[in-house]
Amino acid sequence: MDTTQLLKGVLDLAVLAVLKDEDGYGYDIMRRLRAAGLEEIGDASVYGTLRRLFQGGLLTTYVVPSESGPHRKYYALNAAGRDQLTRSGKVWRSFANTMETLLDDRGMAA
């Protein structure tokens, strides 16, 4: 199965989840997603998702000066983003449980 297609459907949720406990800047968010197992995530996809989530009112941003290069734009979940994370997380868990049941019922469990 092509995981890039799966990623398109859940990238918003993955980014919100990564920002749940700690703010981050673009490259840091990509690094955390990859460290979590989403190695195939593309840079442009993450930056586009951050822009879309910010424009959708789910993230706030602030700039932190960097001693070793350009200033970094940090992204943080706001109240709307936390609410969306909760809602989307429930939908994802329900969907994942349904798929797990389908696979188990057909003798395809891992």
Automatic annotation (TrEMBL):
<dbReference type="Pfam" id="PF03551">
    <property type="entry name" value="PadR"/>
</dbReference>
<feature type="domain" description="Transcription regulator PadR N-terminal">
    <location>
        <begin position="15"/>
        <end position="86"/>
    </location>
</feature>
<dbReference type="InterPro" id="IPR036388">
    <property type="entry name" value="WH-like_DNA-bd_sf"/>
</dbReference>
<protein>
    <submittedName>
        <fullName>PadR family transcriptional regulator</fullName>
    </submittedName>
</protein>
<dbReference type="InterPro" id="IPR052509">
    <property type="entry name" value="Metal_resp_DNA-bind_regulator"/>
</dbReference>
<dbReference type="InterPro" id="IPR005149">
    <property type="entry name" value="Tscrpt_reg_PadR_N"/>
</dbReference>
<dbReference type="InterPro" id="IPR036390">
    <property type="entry name" value="WH_DNA-bd_sf"/>
</dbReference>
